[in-house]
Fold each of these.
Amino acid sequence: MIAEISSFALPLSLAMILVVAVIRRVPLYETFVLGAKDGFQTAISLIPNLIGMMVAVSVFRTSGALNLVIHALSPIFHYLRFPPELLPIALLRPISGASSLALVTDLFKHHGPDSFLGKIASTMQGSTDTTLYVLTVYFGSVGIKNPRYAVKVGLWSDLISVIASVFAVYLIIGK
Amino acid sequence: MLNIIWFTLMMSGLIVAFATGHVAQVTNGLWDGAKSGVEVAIGLVSIITFWLGIMKIAESAGLIEGLSKLVKPIAKWLFPSVPESHPAMGAIIANMSANLLGLGNAATPLGLKAMEELQKLNPTKDMASDAMCTLLALNTASLTIIPATMIGLRAEFHSKNPADIVLPTLLATAIATTAAIILDRFYRHRHQVIKPCPGSSQ
């Protein structure tokens, strides 16, 4: 049942968007092409970030350093019921979206997207925005120098988002 | 920040490699990492292109305006310091509606427009106002309806059901956004600007 709701979400919203657009007489195909035109550029612009981060992560993993860290931390994380493999993604997510996407990809490669870890990583990556990027762009655009408590709120809610992602996958999909 | 992280990942990896003799593996890992960076980006071209096209249709169909009636009372409650008739309120409502619909690309320019209007109401031009902090809290938590990029990436790695993370994502994002709103209220009261500002109830 729950799996059905999830798989229906995308096709259903697609249908809804198309129906509303037809009723409002939007020129569907032309509008689609107009919007899609930027897709290639958007995806390609991820490359420098992805390569930079994936090389660093790959070095960190193949050298055995990642395993050392995971082993060292696993007693604490086991106690917290938080998979230590997800720590790098959780730490990097608020700082750089493309970088944490690189980490998620790396995790997919080694554990698969349908593993428990893969599902939590997907949820963590998809459920929030890159806090520091949003703060920089929004405050930068009007020249705010003192963000007051906005950074604190952003980072605390990122932590909650990480915990909520683990919880949501446990609850909805199960182990 | 990223400088430190990048350096730490690389350097600790290299040091461990020298210490454990995994130098050959690391050299291979380096090229593998670079290669998969390109593969992932190319693989995402398809889903990003398709989704941007659909998002444009949703935007042109006026879905953002359609939602604004529902969003308005929430916006008034979240932004008590912004007068209802001020253009800032309109931009905030549009930004919130776009976020609710998952129209990330449309949400950013609307959010920046809202910041510009809020800056006009801001008595201290280099310090964020309460309303700005609330807008940021909403946008950094960013309520996600359809995590299209993640569905695409999962499909690329041959997931049996790439979309089965939609509900968990929705739950996680709802919890985080609620938390952001509560945290914002909490810190707003704690960081009350000393001089009384017009429009605030205390």
Amino acid sequence: MQRRDFLTAAAHPLRRGMEVLQRVLAQPPIRTQGGLEPYVPSSEIPWDERSAGHLLRRTGFQCTKGEIEWALSRSPQEVVDTLLQNLPAPEPPDSWVNEEPRRPPDLALDAQRMAELQWWWLRLMAETGLSLREKMVFFWHNHFTTDKDKVRTPQYHYIQHDTFRRMVWGNIRALTQRMVSDPAMLIYLDNNENIVGNPNENFARELLELFTLGVGNYTEWDVVAATRALTGWRVIGLRSVFIPQRFDDGIKTFLGQTGPWGTEDTIRIIFEHPECSRFFARKLYRFFVYMEPDEQIVQQLAQQLIANNFELKPVLRTLLGSAHFFAPQFYGAQIKSPLDFVVGLLRQFEVRHPEAYSYAVRAASALELELLNPPTVEGWKGHRLWITSMTLPLRQRIAEALIDGRTFGGAQLPFRVDALGFARRFASHNQARQFVRDVARFLLAYPITKEQEDWLFAELLQGSPEYEWSIAAPNADARIRLLLKAIVRLPEYQLT
Amino acid sequence: MERRNFLKYSLKAGLLLSALPALGRFPTRALAYSPVMDRFRRLTGQSDRVFVLIQLQGGNDGLNTLVPIENALYYNARPTIAIPKAQTLKLTDTLGWHPVLSGLKALYDRGELAIVQGVIYPNPDRSHFRGTDIWVTATDADVFLGTGWIGRYLETLAEDLPPGEIPPEPLAVQIGGASSLLLQSERGLMGISFRDPREFYRLVTQGEIGFGGSLPDTPAGHELLFVRTVAQAAQRYAQQVRQAAERGANRATYPDTDLAQKLRIVAQLVSGGLGAKVYVVGIERNAFDTHAYQGGVTGVHASLLRELSDALKTFLDDVKALGIADRIAGMTFSEFGRRVQENATAGTDHGTAAPLFVFGTQVLGGRLHGRDPDLTNLDPRGDLLMEYDYRQVYAAALLQWFAIPRTQAQRVLLREFAPLPLFQSPSGVEEIQPWEFNLEAHPNPASQEAMIAFTLPEAAAVELALLDLQGRFVSCILSGDYSAGSYRVPVRLAELPSGLYIYRLRVGRRTVLRALEVVR
């Protein structure tokens, strides 16, 4: 698309500002390289550290050196299947998740539990290993949003997250229907207050606009009809119940269909709308592949969603194993979210420490992604909006802090990167030049230039001759840290 | 590898310097008319006017802001949240200020605030996100655009910069909040954002960054270029922001609210001489989205209005005390107003037209544009009809406040809109008259010290500063209130590298630039 053509974007009714926003610098040419047929390694696109790294970085929160090596010992399809294996549900953070909400609430206790929940979830992201699950749970959190400012009972957040995890790549329609009566959602978007004769259209509007169809695919009168059809739900204790007296059982015309519609009909009718499958397909594409959707691929994914009756897993298997997904033009073409960045640091450097998870929760919040607290019902818009003159330097300082075990304010942290242990994972650890190359290739999704390599090499050697380099040398630990800090400061480190 | 090798400063510097040797021999007066100075003027901005945008996120309830006190329909529609007439502050015979808006009322009464009623656009969108996008991109309801109107305006100031090169000073500053579509241009983000100037500086100036070379025309190459541009902007601007914060001051005590503290920083940075043209602040997190229990005389909405009113009043008091009030104007905006009829949960749903405020000492204040909201003539959803297109306010800001040519304003707003009369004319753009203030440096060229002389026809706030050719601040020569008369001020040049410098005299709203050559 030519940048002068921006006005014609209006022809795509689904293009929200969020998508066109990304088109700020002139549009790069997207050559459609490969469709949804399976990726078969070739001499042009071999199954190597770059392609395997691409798959693991996009489906997890970055990856460890060992995970890449494991992936390379398997075929791409085997790795995709591993990523999509169902895992046992994790232990809940504590028994309080089953406690009836207190009336009146104990605000201090709830705040503490909310923090426990954030910590628990972040630890799962860091420790779950080769699985798509936690990243997909985050996808749903960012889709069916809820925030802790409005929903103050941590139990409700846990219930919603448990649903996301259990239905993570199950049926999208079933998940959407489940969200109508989800306690956190009922409270967050006021559907708890949506009663026959006293409609509150907050949830119905967002259901159509942000959760299923997108602006332009329904009218104001559809919002009115859906609002009436979605009445009747009420949160009681830890559950929601349907109270017929609160339900508007009158006739409604919704998206062209007329009847005494209730929740189930509303969801059915929405999912019969041709835009619905495209809406989800586009969102999945942007999450996993690239911010500018290839509409041809989106259309094919949408057809697959319909063919699979909105079961997600087979569609994810197709997308993540496709030639399109593995096209090298997409390697490094996304900007890391704060979670990709912070959890990614913990995983790449294999820092496992309870305090590190608390630090990561705080760091992600400082980078404008606080778990359980999206800025608006639209979730985090992400992509280029993550990077500002404030958050970019902050990302650099956070990464350096983790490497040094000291915050940029000077405070000691109870954990840090094991620099020598990290170096020993690389067979080249005693050959300075090759070591720099290998570390950069592992840590970065985008190749560095020769100039940058020279600069990193100089950071590692600090003026001493190359032949003297060995990780047994007295200063090796400090020098490896200098190298790692120089790498995480690179603009390239923001890409995934 | 040297960082300077990575940062491509040289391109633009080269562009300017290549034209300079010949100019150096000209009498300094002539320099004011040279193409180089013309380009430079556009970069540093001939006008030193500043525009402040205050975003009220979530959709402010206009009817409970300016209350239609004689309208029974209003009181019928809002049995629990209406503001009783007796509690309002007098605005007109038919309109009353919400009781917490004493600050705005004071500004209005002293002519520093204008009100525009019924602002929205045709076919209003009731989505927060789409509505906000429309306001910040300045588009019709069915046009989707990836650049903001402020970004497009600021781009006109930087149009001589080579692509990929960032302006010598930050053109816009956003205090708090994620980066905004408002500041996006086809060149990328036209501003920087931070919460606190000192924290910003501390964060940025650590560790060297190894920028790579040219980038391929691929998706990843484009993302990398974007990240690099932000990194370079942060590096270049952090020092300027800190210096401005240190030079700047506040002369009023601000309330301890989020918005007030943001406006305090704006006043501090403007008074400290930061070159930004636009500041963006806001009450964030969709706070004005009062679907439930919004309150009336007291409550959630009242406290939000109070935050706005008290913060804005303090800000204008402060900039007056600082002597920079004439350079500052601004406006509030919110994605939509709210429905006339309150809902079942003592709140209001998304609506359409609503009032907005334009503020500053150079505003044609104490005026109310537009009729009272017409509650008998609503749209099919029960929402207010449009009185003014929001872009009529933007057009006024561009044409009257920033005084850009009509054709350029049309390009920024994508077509022509009739501006509302909101700002004092003539604008801040002054033709540079070489004889103005008899500004002159002797000797010129100089090596150890020069004497800068100027004459004030009347008492004024004066600032004399030395800048380098990229418009970066070198030193402040003097600053303060001076009475009428002739002045001679010595400037020490011994520590400066040889080359051409600019000295800039600001007298009230006028700015005069001259060149000074330093030789060794």
